[in-house]
Amino acid sequence: MDQSFSTHCTYIICCLVIAINLVYFIIITIKLFIQYQRRPATGYNHKMTDESNETTTTGSSRITTSTSKTGLERLAQLYPHVTEDTPLPSKWNSKEKAPPLALQQNNLAVTYKGPGKSHKDAASVRSDHPIPSLTGIYYYEVKIISKGRDGFMGIGLSTSEVNLNRLPGWDKGSYGYHGDDGHSFCSSGSGITYGPTFTTGDFVGCCVNFLENSCFYTLNGYNIGTSFKDIPEKCNERKLEDRNL
């Protein structure tokens, strides 16, 4: 009798375990199906080919960004709410640059060809599109092909109203990290100690966090730390500036 009772209990427990696992599997399947059905459509599909980033012009300062079709498709997956109506930046804007700057490689490379003798010779270029705040967090990176004579370079963010003949961070609505001294500039001509200097061969990244209105930089893949806080939402254009021979 006891053995029969034990056998029946074991059988019932096994059935319950199987039933619970089956219900769990059905619930997971339903959740995955609902998530798939709710997946937003992505309309962002810019065509772009890879370009070489190794050419250097003697006697000038040159900086490049890199992107590819595969990279843009990946960005479209990461930022599903970004569409053709609110595209991501993909290159430098030939209509938003100072005269001393020349763009090459499908507007991914920037070369400074000015005198570079004083701050009045500064030149900058903005991205082809502002960074959509819907991205939440956006990161871009540039490679320094040549630092030029003195390494007077700056990378950062700005509003569309900021003067293109100024280094990033010097004016209101502009934020920048400078290569010659490693200082960060927050809408002021007076910088503060922030990170290392950067030079030829370095990769400098800039990450803006719209969720916290903050920004940090990377140097050769290493996070330097938060550089700016309380960045206004309208300050969402990538900016790169140079003042070198």
Automatic annotation (TrEMBL):
It comes from the Eukaryota. Pfam families: SPRY. Signal peptide: none annotated. InterPro entries: B30.2/SPRY, B30.2/SPRY_sf, ConA-like_dom_sf, SPRY_dom, SPRY_RanBP9/10, Ubq-SigPath_Reg. Keywords: Membrane, Transmembrane, Transmembrane helix. Residues 70-245 form the B30.2/SPRY domain. Residues 47-66 are annotated as: Disordered. Residues 55-66 have a biased composition (Low complexity). The chain crosses the membrane at residues 12-34. This is B30.2/SPRY domain-containing protein.
